[in-house]
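Aim 2, interim progress: modelling of the 2-oxoglutaric acid-bound target.
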Amino acid sequence: MYGGEYRLTDDQIRFYEENGFVQLHNVLTAEEVQTLRAALDVAIADRDRLKANWGPREDEEYAKVFLQMVNVWERYAAIEEYVLGSRIGGIARQLTRSSAVRLWHDHALIKYPKDSKATAWHQDKVYWPMRENTALSCWMALDDVTVDKGCMWFIPGSHKLGPLDPVDLGKAGDEDLLALLPIGGRESVRPFIAEMKAGSCTFHHGLTFHYAGPNVTDGPRRAMVTIYMPAGTHYAPLAHLIGDRGNLTDGEEFHGPLFPIIR
Ligand SMILES: O=C(O)CCC(=O)C(=O)O
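Predicted structure of the complex, ligand included:
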């Protein structure tokens, strides 16, 4: 499972380069989705049973945005097979036009219904300790996602703005950030709304502004997110949610088994 190659067209790669995201349908089979979902449900149950803190923050406001479990691949074989599999890593490799990518980290992001909060507009790269601005995320839907379920939204081309200020995701939906973007104000910004079926995904560049609304349905919104960087990416010190993994020094290339390589 999760192997083989998902061959992108030149148009899809160019779309990603131009817009900072791309949506890809039917990347996983129904069986692959079901296996991942089951593994994630076990992880959630284990986390509750062990009272383990597998995410950066457990405070109540942040928990309304999502339950976040980080580096789940290290604990569950099915998730490891997915995260390190050639299919998803291979798409990241094609989109970044690199010969290989390394995993930065994974995180499961589950938006529970009721009292759910939006994920504020933000860029990811401002939280990542890397010199280059080339890393990207795959956001895999494990449930069918609609606006009501809390699907992802992207601002096309916003990765070209460069890094802006980080946002505290625990605080407010912060939709007004849109108005602050130096691309002409709210009226001229037309977000792409990534509704899709389970097993479909989006990839977004680390500097692309994105958002997800609250989950106002009756069921959970389960997403598995994996972040990859082209092999050869250099470490640049910055406090990060997964901590000081790897003891890298400023300017050193990411290497070693904590950041596995995928060809
Ligand atoms: O799933 C969400 O609510 C937000 C996801 C996100 O910010 C990301 O994958 O970078």
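The mean pLDDT is 91. The longest strand covers residues 101-111.
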